[in-house]
Write a structure and sequence with these properties.
Helix content of chain B: 10-25%
Structural class of chain B: alpha+beta
CATH architecture of chain A: Beta Barrel
Strand content of chain B: 15-25%
Shape of chain A: elongated
Strand content of chain A: 15-25%
Distance between the termini of chain A: 111 Å
Radius of gyration of chain A: 34 Å
Strand order of the largest sheet of chain B: 13-12-16-30-17-25
CATH class of chain A: Mainly Beta
Largest sheet of chain A: 8 strands, mixed, barrel
Number of helices of chain A: 4
Oligomer: heterodimer
Distance between the termini of chain B: 34 Å
Strand order of the largest sheet of chain A: 3-4-5-6-9-10-8-7
Helix content of chain A: 25-40%
Number of strands of chain A: 10
Number of strands of chain B: 30
Number of domains of chain A: 1
Chain lengths: 333, 924
């Protein structure tokens, strides 16, 4: 057999093949630097911190009004019945001219127990039509009490009784019921409804630090004065100074009832609720525990399962942390 | 939230975060204007005499209205008012057209909160402008024949309704209304109305005379329309019914009384005008027209012309916060340091002086203090620190004496001259003081010419009718030839030539004629001892005390003859005034008649047999009450005898009357009582007290003659000068003044108060606190000034050598090693006088001296610049940094954290889209 001579070099190349030619190898990529662990931690930590702090700020500004609103509804439903029944005066004794002492305990407190009104209990409904305010007033003026609504200072007489009655209210957070108080003008009406009846006060004026005190005479002559206290400042989120609104009762007051002579420091004006430090610390610890548990769960379970379980838990604990922290802020803010 | 809104929301949040920061440039508060006038309050306005139509431009000026303390006196000047009539009357309430000055509660007081005992609406109801409740009363008054027809079944009921209608109530600080009526129930003698809110009587802090317990004045106005006087202001502590404190505002109300526009059917004298003479002559009437007197301050026509001066009181220096939980450092002793301790104590209390302890001072005599310091009670000593002037001796523990205050005893006085104006300057010599203190002035009233032909009555002679009685007199057997009182003493006149003692007829002014003993306290005290040392060191006084008569023949009371210096003032004279004999019907007459024997005693002398000079003595229990007795315008002397009728219990009643007119149900009881307080213009009282107390209550102090014969008042600097004559005890380092060497401008009454504390036996902490207190008192506390931690007026600052002595003693107390400090070698003035003395005070406040001609009536310290405008009780607001910055800071911090997180992420991922974008920008 004869071998044919190989074709010469100018022979046409082979038939085109169906497989695409392999792409040329890419130039070597620069070595990918893994994101350093420290940077990751720092980022995470600060992101969480930012979220937590901004969340607290958002809670204070946006969510506390809702909470206070809900509290008001509950308190109002508690208060309606006894007021409608016109339950006789409570929290102390009355001595008439003949020396007869009469004492009555309202039905919402333990029967037969001679107690003063416990802090947090609703005592009155405060209405100021001029600023469209209608709030249930609770007893006590600590930061905690004032999260539910305006609070009556415990060492003063109840609104409607002879003497001077002080009511504190917030002006920035938790619904800021008293935010518009400084806009009140002389002669406008304030109505307070308590167990002892309905009382109409007329605004005497708004005063601030350095202004003369109102005349004590109408009070010593058997009248009643209501002073509403709150704070004001450059803008709604930055209250700073206390401001007072005085109002004098139109008509005859009820006799003054007994009340504590001394109140704890956290119920003073612009005081933080020091006892709230404990729950704050405890809930923060709970938050840490939850975070650690979630980190562990992330490893063991998986991303979405952890999120499903973890997010509600974290949010709930965070809410309590926020609530306790809010109590640490000054009570009038 | 879409991506569009994202940046907008972010921008809003950023804006909220940034804007407050940017806008937080705090506007500076407008600085309060400080008025630099001499008068703190001045108001001029036209007052209209509603009865005549005349308009007067009146002005009221007050020298001090802020930071007032209890019983402080302020100078008030009136100008342009209507001239008063009947100004020679013996009592202020008889003056016609006076100006009524009262202290009231509230910044806009009503009649109901003004303290004034004249509250009847009758006179004021005749005013045409009278309010209905006043008019109702005067309408009833106008019916001439009927008794006032008030309803009521019993007489008591009628009277109750009457006083309810007729009296303007006074509302006390606790809200109780007082009708201030003197009437009592006829049934049981008790008050007519006594309910918790309404009472018929006066508030309990006001006596029946009303005058001594309230400071209300009815001031006469001179023909030129003006007058200047001092007015006392009271806080809650001394006038609880007003209840003025640093938080309860009060005011002075000035009501000029002028003619009333009378209604047509008014009584005649309503429009008659004054019945007393115009000022100028000696005449006066005791029956002035009450329509133009103090009674009509309630009338609308007068009340409408009132001036209201707002006041603000300093916090009560005596009240420390009972909740102050700091440990207390008690110290007991000398009244010399009382005034300073009240002030320094307040500085500790209010935090003006920061410390971890609270010093508590108790007033007491120095002898008792030294006893308690050296006596053990169980395992503890009764006192661990005392204030004393003499050194502690016989102490089981080693003691350090640290100088703490330089002051002295003083003779304060409120004396009105014969012209009715307050005397500002009085000079006393040791012998004059001896005469005053040894009960040597003649207390009996019979003038020498009336003794002719009369015999002394011993109580044994029989007297049966008035003629017999006239032949006798009763007088102190040994004092009969002595002058009747200080102002009748020629030695006094010689030393005080410029004091107006006599009236235009040359006779001694009436109010200066009676014997007035100086007010002195009976307590074993270094102050009394030093006073007597001053007296007995003077040769003339010593000789007089031993029995030698003075140039005019006055002799010492034999009971006091030869007396030596003593630390306890006791009354040695025992003469009882023989009572005049009773008339036969003595029991039956209401006023228990006696025959008239000149100078004879009264029923109290008969029943109680109190020595007469004891009855006339003015005794208190402390130097402070001596000083306030001058403010009360009377001492504790009981020259009068009063009787009262008290019910006898049924089982003790006699069955039948013992004599005609005997009431078996009631018994008559006698009591020695004080006189009414002196009227202004008729005061003549001296008191032994301390220089500091006199300065506190603005009482003038007498100039005492020192051993060089020169009279010196205790003005600033004179007490330091007296240290030149000091004798130092070599063991303890305490000094006392050698009265034989006090010369030049040195005040002879100078005394130094030392703090004595043990230098071993105390635990470290207590010792450190006492040492700290001693150091404070000797350094910061010695700066004269007006703030709480400064040295009050009445004290001279300690000279440097004494300051070092005090610091040395404090160090010894702190070490507790038993060291007794060595006294300074050069004596108390070894290093020279102190740097800063307080500014010279005008001797005594001006009762008739307006500020234009002399220095300001009040104490002008080196920084008198802090005069503030009239202040009322002010709101104290609060500020909270946290409230202001909480939310913005949260937002800011949150954003910052987010930024950091984001930034870290960007920095750590080079292929981050942001980095690529930035890189792209740069490359281009």
């Amino acid at each position: 057999m004869t071998v044919q001579a190989s074709p010469p070099a100018e022979a046409v190349p082979a038939v085109e093949e169906a497989v695409a030619p392999p792409p040329p190898p890419a130039p070597p990529a620069p070595p990918a630097r893994p994101e350093s662990f420290a940077a990751k931690v720092v980022t995470r930590v600060f992101a969480l911190l930012a979220a937590g702090v901004l969340g607290f700020a958002g809670y204070l500004v946006l969510l506390t009004p809702l909470e206070q609103d809900a509290n008001q509804d509950v308190l109002y439903s508690e208060l309606r019945g006894p007021i409608a029944e016109a339950v006789p005066p409570y929290a102390g004794r009355e001595e008439s001219e003949d020396g007869i002492i009469s004492r009555a305990v309202p039905p919402i407190y333990a029967d037969g127990e001679d107690t003063l009104i416990p802090a947090g209990a609703p005592i009155a409904v405060l209405e100021i039509p001029a600023i469209e305010l209608r709030q249930v007033v609770v007893e006590g003026t600590s930061s905690d009490d004032l999260t539910a609504g305006p609070g009556h200072r415990r060492d003063t007489v109840l609104p409607g009784q002879q003497g001077v009655s002080l009511v504190y209210g917030r002006a920035a957070t938790f619904g800021a019921p008293f935010a518009d108080l400084p806009h009140l003008r002389r002669g406008q009406a304030i109505t307070v409804v308590t167990f002892q009846g309905e009382f109409t006060y007329r605004v005497e004026g708004v005063r601030r630090d350095g202004d003369p005190l109102p005349d004590i005479e109408p009070v010593t002559e058997g009248g009643s004065r209501l002073t509403l206290v709150t704070v004001e400042g450059g803008n709604p989120l930055q209250p700073e100074r206390t401001v007072f609104v005085d109002a004098l009762l139109d008509g005859e007051p009820q006799p003054a009832a007994e009340r504590p002579g001394l109140i704890p420091p956290e119920e003073q004006s612009l005081a933080s609720d020091r006892p709230a430090l404990l729950p704050f610390v405890l809930w923060t610890q709970a938050l840490v525990v939850v975070a650690v548990a979630l980190a562990w769960a992330r490893v063991r379970w998986g991303r979405w399962e952890t999120h499903l379980v973890g997010v509600p838990v974290v949010l709930a604990v965070l809410w309590y942390v926020y609530e306790a922290a809010a109590r640490l802020l000054p009570n009038l803010a | 939230m879409g991506r569009r809104n994202g940046p907008a929301r972010l921008g809003l949040v950023l804006l909220l975060a940034v804007a407050p920061v940017a806008g937080a440039a705090v506007l500076p508060d407008a600085a309060p204007a400080h008025a630099q006038a001499d008068w703190a309050f001045e108001q001029s306005k036209d007052i209209t005499n509603q009865g005549t139509g005349e308009v007067l431009p009146a002005t009221v000026r007050v020298n001090r209205i802020a930071d007032l303390f209890d019983r402080q006196q302020v100078a008030i000047e009136l100008e342009g008012f209507k001239a008063s009539h009947n100004t020679n009357a013996s009592q202020e309430v008889l003056i016609e057209y006076p100006v009524v000055v009262m202290q009231c509660r509230g910044t806009e007081p009503t009649r109901e909160t003004c303290l004034n005992r004249y509250r009847g609406r009758w006179y004021s109801g005749f005013d045409t402008a009278a309010p209905p409740e006043q008019r109702a009363v005067s309408d009833l008054q106008s019916r001439p024949t009927e008794p006032r027809p008030y309803p009521g079944d019993t007489q008591d009921e009628q009277v109750r309704n009457m006083i309810r209608a007729e009296q303007e109530p006074f509302v006390a600080a606790d809200g109780v209304r007082y009708l201030w009526s003197g009437r009592e129930s006829t049934e049981d003698g008790g008050p007519l109305i006594n309910t918790p809110t309404l009472k018929s009587f006066a508030p309990t802090d006001v006596t029946w005379t009303g005058a001594s317990r309230i400071a209300t004045r009815s001031v006469p106005i001179r023909p030129d329309g003006g007058n200047e006087f001092l007015f006392e202001l009271r806080q809650q502590a001394s006038q609880p019914s007003l209840g003025c404190t640093d938080t309860v505002a009060c005011s002075i109300v000035v009501v000029p009384i002028m003619d009333l526009p009378c209604v047509e059917d008014a009584r005649d004298d309503c429009s008659e005008g004054p019945s007393g003479p115009e000022p100028g002559g000696p005449n006066f009437t005791n029956n002035p027209n009450e329509f133009v007197g103090i009674h009509t301050w309630l009338a609308e026509s007068n009340w409408g012309n009132r001036f209201v001066v707002p006041l603000s009181f300093a916090p009560d220096l005596r009240a420390c916060d009972v909740r102050d939980s700091r440990p207390t450092i008690p110290a007991y002793g000398s009244e010399l340091i009382d005034v300073a301790q009240q002030r320094w104590g307040a500085a500790y209390c209010t935090g003006a002086r920061r410390s971890d302890y609270l010093p508590v001072y108790t007033q007491g005599g120095e002898y008792e203090a030294r006893r308690q310091f050296t006596t053990r009670l169980g395992s503890e000593y009764q006192q661990n620190a005392i204030y004393t002037t003499q050194p502690v001796t016989g102490s089981p523990r080693p003691v350090a004496h640290a100088p703490s205050a330089l002051t002295g005893f003083a003779v304060a006085f409120t004396v009105d001259g014969a012209d009715g104006r307050q005397v500002q300057r009085l000079t006393l010599s040791p012998r004059l003081l001896a005469k005053l203190l040894t009960q040597s002035y003649n207390p009996t009233v019979i003038p020498p010419r009336d003794r002719e032909g009369r015999q002394p009555y011993t109580g044994e002679q029989e007297i049966t009718d008035d003629a017999d009685a006239r032949a006798y007199y009763v007088a102190h057997p040994y004092l009969l030839d002595n002058p009747r009182g200080l102002f009748a003493d020629p030695e006094f006149a010689e030393l005080n030539p410029d004091v107006a003692l006599t009236d235009e007829n040359g006779a001694l002014a009436g109010h200066l004629m009676n014997l007035r003993n100086p007010v002195i306290f009976t307590e074993e005290s270094d102050i009394v001892l030093e006073l007597f040392r001053y007296i007995t060191s003077d040769p003339a006084a010593r000789a007089w005390l031993d029995g030698r008569p003075d140039r005019w023949g006055m002799r010492v009371n034999p009971a006091w003859r030869g007396t030596a210096a003593t630390q306890l003032y006791t009354l040695l004279d025992t003469w009882v005034r023989t009572p005049a004999p009773r008339k036969p019907n003595w029991l039956e007459t209401a006023d228990h008649n006696r025959y008239f024997v000149y100078g004879g005693g009264d029923t109290c002398d008969e029943f109680f047999a109190t020595p007469y000079l004891t009855r006339l003595a003015n005794i208190t229990d402390s130097a402070e009450s001596s000083a306030t007795s001058l403010l009360d315008r009377r001492g504790s002397a009981t020259p009068a005898c009063a009787s009262d009728s008290v019910p006898i219990p049924e089982d003790e009643q006699a069955d039948e009357p013992q004599f005609p007119g005997d009431n078996v149900t009631r018994d008559v009881v006698f009591e020695e009582v004080e006189n009414n307080p002196d009227e202004y213009g008729q005061r003549a009282l001296l008191a032994i007290t301390t220089v500091a107390h006199a300065a506190l209550y603005e009482l003038p102090t007498a100039r005492l003659v020192n051993s060089a014969g020169r009279p010196v008042a205790p003005t600033p600097g004179t007490m330091v000068a007296a240290l030149n004559a000091a004798v130092q005890d070599p063991t303890s380092g305490t000094v006392r003044v050698d009265h034989r060497r006090v010369a030049g401008g040195a005040y002879p009454g100078t005394m130094v108060a030392y703090t004595a504390a043990p230098t071993s036996g105390l635990d470290r902490t207590t010792a450190a606190r006492y040492a700290d207190l001693i150091e404070f008192m000797a350094t910061d506390g010695q700066t004269p000034g007006d703030t709480l931690a400064d040295l009050p007026p009445g004290y001279d600052p300690l000279p440097p050598a004494m300051v070092r002595q005090a610091l040395d003693a404090a160090a010894a107390v702190r070490e507790q090693q038993g060291r007794v400090p060595v006294p300074p070698a050069g004596g108390p003035l070894g290093d020279g006088p102190p740097d800063a003395l307080p500014a010279a005070q005008e001797p005594g406040p001006g009762s008739g001296v307006p500020p234009e001609t002399t220095t300001s009536p009040q104490d002008t310290g080196p920084e008198s610049a802090e005069e503030e405008v009239a202040q009322v009780a002010r709101t104290e607001g609060e500020e909270s940094w946290l409230a202001r910055w909480a939310i913005p800071l949260l937002i800011g911090f949150g954003l910052l954290a987010a930024l950091v997180a984001f930034g870290t992420q960007v920095a750590s991922r080079p292929d981050h889209p942001l980095r690529r974008a930035l890189a792209g920008l740069v490359r281009r």
